[in-house]
């Protein structure tokens, strides 16, 4: 299986003053709609935004990152962007408390987007929780190219699913799983994946969600010899490639594992590139790994 | 109004057109930031500390946000000096950016090797010697925390560096007497001092009830540490009135930068603020120029150390 | 739910009903805060450091707000030990509050004199020895920055204090190796350690272009320094597994307090947060109790140092 | 001249959750009206409030202090309070950007208020800039007791005067001075004071405003052997008496000068108690003053 990219490289990010157009609830999440001149046109599915949070002077220095859910280039305000926010910490809470008309400082589009297949092959898209956010735009692009799109949405419970209604409209099929069985099949997304792939002959798996889920998708793809593309979520300090906080062990085209930035080299990686079992560690065969087990303590 | 101020900064034998530089480890090698502002316009790009060999750095999580600050424990991840020279330094040279190369080692020899390797490379405005890293030959004690260790490193780097290239020793605030370390570095041949590096900190994740960083402790940076940084610059300027100082630590706007200049820094580096605003270094250059003009300064140089003046009430 | 947690804190020979105390200099002698919460409900009131003689302190400005922190340079203003005993200590005793008396001196003899004067006073749960003040006999070097000076003070205080009264040495973070100073204090007879005192900082007023504080430098406190404080507690707990630690530095809510407990503190002091919320110590007691209950702890003591445990992934 | 207090001691402060009812401009200032249950009833002229500022999590730890301008105990919300805000820094700017209905965290009433004379003696009230804020309430109380009230408002320029219209209604006479002559007499408040005192036989001068102005008032009072009461403004970290940042040199009833807290022992002091020339220093005869010129450096 080849791991070359078949999409376009990312366009350069811009920093713009956006304006909040709407904040609405959706299950446990919020959908934030904002104007951000120049962003919509440049966005591909899988790109993300980094938004400055906190009223001035705030104690929160770092931007918060969110997958781009939708864009609309036709907006009167020069393009609008939608994100899905799980408001669990101080930064995300601040964000969903914005009022219509409030300014927000946005950098976008960031990261490498999902690559699209040249041929109209069937694709399975799997979203965990708010991880489904970027998949609807991806589904649209894929269907434009004639790909069949089977969508799987999974979450712990019904209220933590995102995009059920939208999914029904935009995918060829929609399968839902919840850990507690409150909606759809009780279980994990990986439990329904094999059947879907068997039934429709899926050639590419696209995933976005928790690390464990992505590892599972990558494994299924690998076992079947098909391609998987996974959008990862690592804590990011800068989002633009200068700080090296967002790394994970990724195998390069030369076969060497490097601690690779997920903000600029990702967030989308081919499933077989990522050393899933070693995420959160430095594998001993990684380039530049410490020689001893503990390594030289270093900051 | 602000363009009447002469913004040139003197750092030992080097004169930079702007006193605002990036901070090591907060700008990679300039390429990513060049999308947000013209990296040739600022004083210089200070590159991420480079070591002899490629280095993976630490496992994740490598960062934690803290009140008005952040902790990082990157562990000096980098490609090693050879790839740095062939890729990063080359890009900076071709781009026409002034470059301060930051070097780091685990032993005096490694520092010497780095200096030697860089000796004949073109396009290096200065070396910044990151001595805030552990000395593997001395139970991991940080070079910058011991005047003798610091001095050996600087001495070795000075010996392997051409006289035309100034050497800045980058100091850690985690010492009982920073002026003491500064003096040791200057005596060993440092042409200037960069301060401060991050201060050692720690966050416990109250969900996992373990340290938040895989590296357990990390370096604290950002506005939270600015008062400590300004104090260090003030103390060292008092102790060593004539040594060039590159000040840093929590600078997020032009007035923050002005505090450092008034306390005695000849130029400043902008680090963590870049994560929030990737064009921060250039914005801060402009804000500083305006602030100097507002206060009637004709040149940056006139403002350096101005808060030390004795006039009126004797502080 | 939270009332099932046994919140008693053990600080050497003393057991307090709550692990939350005030921090010296941030609660005066408790009387003003008693309007906002019942000062007998918290672990203890730690009084403002008292000296032998009355003391005017420094000129104003004595404070500057900084990002997520503040600088102060009060200069240990106080009424002197006699008035302290006849007014403040008496009020605390009559009110029924547990009291930790903080003492400060400019020489070893002064510390000894203070300990001696307090020896037969009733209602003192412990002494906190503020060694973060300058030694007038040693060019103003801060006692806490030199293991020998620190040890002489503790030794003297221990000699003049009854065995039933624990002595806590209050450490400064402005040292190269805090575990070293901690060890020196314990060897000299300290029953426990309080950490951290403020870290030295400075702000330049960009309007006057002079130091913002009349005292030039000041002590930095508040959430900005919390990562540094947690790191100090962690390091000292590692070095001295059995010595009681009173942790402080930037605690503003129950989860902040929990970080210190998990890092190894047996109890905590709340300082700067009191300025924003005068009932912070009692609020934090309740938040900490709830946080411990949420995490399944039956007692505070079970959580002390819990982040050091080795289980699962070896950090 | 006696310096005993002839008013009542202050009531204890309370910490309450207030609610913003209105923010309106007045010249260069803003008037902030908020509900604060229990505060209005307990407030005397000269008391102040301390308000927490900044959205959470903010980088601003310290409360901001403001003289209480007006109170209304008849409000449906259990009492309302008004303050006058000069929005020049981050905390005051945050405050005046509050919307109606926003919560604010308030501690009040704080400090010792102005003392009121037992007898219906003529009084002159002098306010510099927003320093006039507490004087209108004071004027009402004084007039209730039958005192004549001559009001002087001074500022650098017209837009920095506060309460001109109100002053005309509530005082027996109103005199205005501006440094630039844009309204009223060109000059300082002290320039008009002697004439006013001569004309109406004023027995007490009340003042609130910049330190230099207060020093001037105290001097005039002292020269005439009448009483002055001045509300000072020192940078305060806690506002409740526990931090010792807000001190100034004040002579006690025992004749000894002490560095005295302006938050709990003030902000109102008798003019002859304050060592005006020594504010910002520690006079060498102050209790506990350092023996040498420089003193032991100490934090
Ligand atoms: C590429 C990418 C795409 C993302 N897409 C979405 C999305 O569509 N919807 C959504 O709700 N969330 C998304 N996240 C996660 C989101 O960025 C975090 O939940 C958010 O930053 C947490 O901020 P907080 O202040 O609420 O929480 P806190 O936990 O208080 O944040 C503290 C700090 O940790 C960082 N941090 C904490 N958790 C994460 C995390 N999971 N990922 C990155 N940084 C983290 C924050 O940036 C901040 O610096 C995405 C993250 C990345 C990296
Ligand atoms: C008793 C008292 C009554 C006051 N009454 C009023 C009033 O009626 N209207 C009004 O507009 N202002 C009043 N002030 C001043 C007001 O408190 C300050 O202007 C305000 O705190 C500045 O906050 P900032 O964030 O805007 O500015 P910054 O200058 O950024 O404040 C930084 C820090 O310094 C402190 N600070 C700065 N200036 C002062 C000052 N003059 N007094 C006290 N603390 C200061 C702040 O509290 C804060 O901690 C009063 C102050 C006191 C002590
Ligand atoms: C993510 C990160 C990585 C850093 N890496 C280095 C480094 O490699 N070498 C070095 O000398 N300093 C490094 N620093 C320290 C900065 O150069 C700077 O001294 C410090 O962060 C204080 O400045 P600031 O508050 O503006 O960030 C790093 C800082 C951060 C936040
Ligand atoms: C205004 C002020 C005065 C202080 N005075 C003393 C003191 O007299 N003695 C002392 O040991 N510590 C003093 N401290 C330090 C505190 O007790 C505490 O160690 C430090 O502020 C860190 O805790 P915090 O961040 O919770 O304030 C003072 C701190 C402040 C802010
Ligand atoms: S988040 Fe900074 S390099 Fe990726
Ligand atoms: S402001 Fe804290 S004592 Fe007055």
Give short descriptive properties of this protein:
A: 299 residues, Elongation Factor Tu (Ef-tu), domain 3, Rossmann fold, seven-stranded mixed beta sheet, 16 strands, 18% helix, disordered N terminus, B: 315 residues, alpha/beta, TIM Barrel, eight-stranded parallel beta sheet, 9 helices, binds FE2/S2 (inorganic) cluster
Describe the structure.
Chain A is built from 6 helices and 16 strands. With 299 residues, chain A is α/β, with parallel strands linked by helices. The longest helix of chain A is centred in the C-terminal third of the chain and has 14 residues, at 211-224. Chain B is an alpha/beta fold. Chain B has a single domain, classed as TIM Barrel. Chain B has helices spanning 81-95, 108-118, 147-159, 178-187, 226-239, 254-263, 273-276, 280-294, 300-303, and strands spanning 9-11, 14-16, 20-22, 45-46, 63-66, 69-72, 99-103, 126-130, 167-170, 192-195, 199-201, 204-205, 210-211, 218-221, 245-248, 267-270. In chain B, 68% of the residues are buried. The model of chain B has no long low-confidence stretch (mean pLDDT 95). Chains A and B meet through loops of A and strand 6 and helix 7 of B. The complex binds flavin-adenine dinucleotide (2 copies), flavin mononucleotide (2 copies) and FE2/S2 (inorganic) cluster (2 copies). Residues 23-26, 48-49, 72, 74, 76, 102, 130, 170, 197-198, 219, 221-222, 248-251, 270-273 of chain C line the site of one flavin mononucleotide.
List the helices and strands and how they pair.
The complex is a heterotetramer, with two copies of chain A (299 residues) and two copies of chain B (315 residues).
Chain A: E1 14-26, E2 29-35, H1 39-42, E3 48-51, E4 64-67, E5 70-72, E6 80-85, H2 90-96, E7 103-110, E8 123-128, H3 135-144, E9 149-155, H4 164-170, E10 173-178, E11 185-186, H5 189-200, E12 204-208, H6 211-224, E13 227-231, E14 247-251, E15 257-261, E16 268-270
Parallel strand pairs in A: 8-9, 8-12, 9-10, 10-11, 12-13
Antiparallel strand pairs in A: 1-2, 1-7, 2-6, 3-4, 3-7, 5-6, 13-16, 14-15
Chain B: E1 9-11, E2 14-16, E3 20-22, E4 45-46, E5 63-66, E6 69-72, H1 81-95, E7 99-103, H2 108-118, E8 126-130, H3 147-159, E9 167-170, H4 178-187, E10 192-195, E11 199-201, E12 204-205, E13 210-211, E14 218-221, H5 226-239, E15 245-248, H6 254-263, E16 267-270, H7 273-276, H8 280-294, H9 300-303
